[in-house]
Amino acid sequence: MKLDMHLHSNYSTDGKAAPRQILKEARKLGLDGLCITDHNTLKGNAEVRKIAAEFGIIVLRGMEITSTDGHILAIGIGEEVPRDLSAEETLENIRAQGGMAVIPHPYRNWSGLGWECVRKIKPDAIEVLNSHSTKRENAMAGKLCWEMGLPMTAGSDSHELESIGRAYISIPDATDEDGVLKAIRSGEAKARGRSRNLIGTLKDRTLTVTQWMGRGFKKM
Ligand SMILES: [Zn+2]
Ligand SMILES: [Zn+2]
Q1: pLDDT for 110-122, tens place per residue?
Q2: Ligand 2 centre and the CA of 111: distance in Å?
Q3: Residue 199 pLDDT grade (very low, low, confident, very high; cuts 50, 70, 90)
Q4: Taking a C-beta distance cutoff of 8 angstroms, is the pair 196, 204 a contact?
Q5: What is the 3-state secondary structure of 27-76?
Q6: Nearest bound ligand to the CA of residue 62
Q7: Which ligand is closest in space to the CA of residue 9?
Q8: What is the number of the ligand closest to the CA of 157?
Q9: CATH architecture classification, 2-214
């Protein structure tokens, strides 16, 4: 089974894809599941889950939280985790809900947690392949994950339809969120897909800075 574990809908302020479009595209690409991880909200995720059965796609509950140390993915949670808590407090909140705390793009400027923080807080898994990260950043994330002996995940981090599924995990068959989380926790998930290329890198950098200025220099 293939699942894109990190992507954004238009409920993220910087996201463009609507729930129905995302599911249509995912089915076209042959994805079996996905986790909508909008920035600091569960609303888009809930909208996608409402209609997921029509498309035969498993949609896991999740969001991407802005902690004061950087971005953290929460998978399998029912309540929104507040932004701007420390990484440690964010993890406590996720685990109190029985969710899984995953560190996305640990080596990204601005929003990555960085290896020191990741080692200190000991998350449940590390995202070792993000299609918006460079090859080098992903390789470093993979090394950190391996050194810490943690399970891996992967996702496109797509904010628009075009890049959905560019990175994903493959796992043995699962029928629901619980099954997928068990497969990840037991280390059965393998990261597949690709990193971003040079043109994507330049475009992303310009976009990030423009968006940041547009938000009045407030971090996403
Ligand atoms: Zn992020
Ligand atoms: Zn993201």
Answers
A1: 899 999 999 999 9
A2: 10
A3: low
A4: yes
A5: HHHCCCEEEECCECCCHHHHHHHHHHHHHCCEEECEEEEEECCEEEEEEC
A6: 2
A7: 2
A8: 2
A9: Alpha-Beta Barrel (3.20)
